[in-house]
Amino acid sequence: MVFPWRTQDPFLFCAHHRDLYPKGNEQFGPATSLSGRNMGSDFTIKDGFRMYHGMTVPGFPSHPHRGFETVTIAKEGMVDHSDSLGAAGRFGEGDVQWMTAGKGVQHSEMFPLLNQDKENTLEIFQIWLNLPAKSKMVEPYFSMLWHEKIPVVEQSTDGAKSKVSVIAGAFGEQQALRPAPDSWAADDAHEVAIWTIKLEPGAKVSIPAAKSTEANRTLYFYQGTGLKVEGQEISDYHLMDVDSTAELSLVGGGTDCYVLVLQGKPLNEPVVQHGPFVMNTHEQIHQTMQEYGRTQFGGWPWPKSEQVHDPKRGRFALHADGREESPS
């Protein structure tokens, strides 16, 4: 399986980042030498981690988006968000950020290495979900799905436990928190689902069939050994496009197995992508590039492109309207 992972409509992109960062330094970067790296575009794992586009702090300094949504699942470690609307946040340890880029926003996603006395493991998924033509120019928006509030379905098979985190959609009777209001996922008829699944050895999960015959469904087996799907053993770091109209049986193998599921009815609209911009026509992409050149989608109100927040701050979200929230 290549990086990034292939996705099906209505999804555009899925990247899985797992980095075993060392102890942090006073600048929240790695307390080790960065020599030998292609700094500014470091996507090759060296000594267990990558710097991505970060020069001091790993991550993705300020960059623009238009025409789609990002769903960022932070399984381990912390992510510091800042954007051109003046919004900011810190999330991690299972939290999810759902951001509608809409008509245009700049943001940064940095991975501050807050622990100076121990290693800083980071694991995140970033999923790009397309917006329909009617919603591509909506106002930018982001919401936080704190992990304490994300619904979880737990089951046990002869003492072996499984856990399904319902980030979007419904799993059986368990309904996810509401997504961003202009999202394709906001209409339940579109059957958009994002689930992460953990199976202990021998644990079983039965994925229910979708109601629609149109929904696409993809499974990403990203960690573990011996996972069986409908009785067939699957190698790790493998993706599977499966029939969403049939119930699907998963059985954990020799170690804990971890799976990401993406599902949804397709938009069936033209997709024209140029880097961080996703529209329906080449003319719209040209207009987007011209507008970004003029306006920078509001500019960058933060002192650094690699903006990170006070190390003493816990998880929080500061919205563009000044509203602030935290998990508590």
Radius of gyration (Å) = 20 Å
Q: For the record, what is the CATH homologous superfamily label of the largest domain?
A: Jelly Rolls
Q: Could you say what the CATH topology of the largest domain is called?
A: Jelly Rolls
Low-pLDDT residue intervals, each spanning 5 or more residues: none
List how many beta strands DSSP finds. 25
CATH architecture of the largest domain: Sandwich
Which of globular, elongated, flat, extended, rod-shaped describes the shape? globular
Rounded mean pLDDT is: 96
Major sheet, described briefly? 6 strands, antiparallel
SSE series: EEEEEEEEEEEEEEEEEEEEEEEHEE
Q: Within the largest sheet, what's the order of strands?
A: 2-7-4-5-24-25
Structural class by helix and strand composition: mainly beta
- How many domains comprise the coordinates? 2
Q: Output the number of helix runs.
A: 1
Family: Belongs to the pirin family.
Domain Pirin N-terminal: 37-129
Keywords: Iron, Metal-binding
Region (Disordered): 302-328
In short:
It is built from 1 helix and 25 strands. It has 328 residues and is mainly beta.
Structural description of this entry:
- Residues 302-328 are annotated as: Disordered.
- InterPro entries: Pirin, Pirin_C_dom, Pirin_N_dom, RmlC-like_jellyroll, RmlC_Cupin_sf.
- This is Pirin.
- GO terms for molecular function: metal ion binding.
- Fe cation binds at residues 63, 65, 107, 109.
- With 328 residues, this protein is mainly β.
- It folds into 2 domains: 1-31 and 48-149, Jelly Rolls (Sandwich); 152-264, Jelly Rolls, CATH 2.60.120.10.
- Helix content is 4%, strand content 41%.
- The chain has 1 helix and 25 strands.
- It has one helix at residues 282-295; strands at residues 11-21, 59-65, 68-76, 78-83, 88-92, 96-100, 105-110, 120-130, 141-145, 152-157, 160-168, 170-171, 174-175, 193-199, 204-207, 216-223, 228-229, 232-233, 238-242, 248-251, 257-264, 272-274, 277-279, 316-318, 324-325.
- The protein has a 6-stranded antiparallel sheet, with no helix packed on it. Strands 10-11-14-21-16-19 form a 6-stranded antiparallel sheet, with no helix packed on it. It has a 5-stranded antiparallel sheet with strand order 1-8-3-6-9, with no helix packed on it.
- A hairpin with a 4-residue loop joins strand 4 and strand 5.
- The longest helix has 14 residues, at 282-295.
- The chain is globular.
- The mean pLDDT is 96.
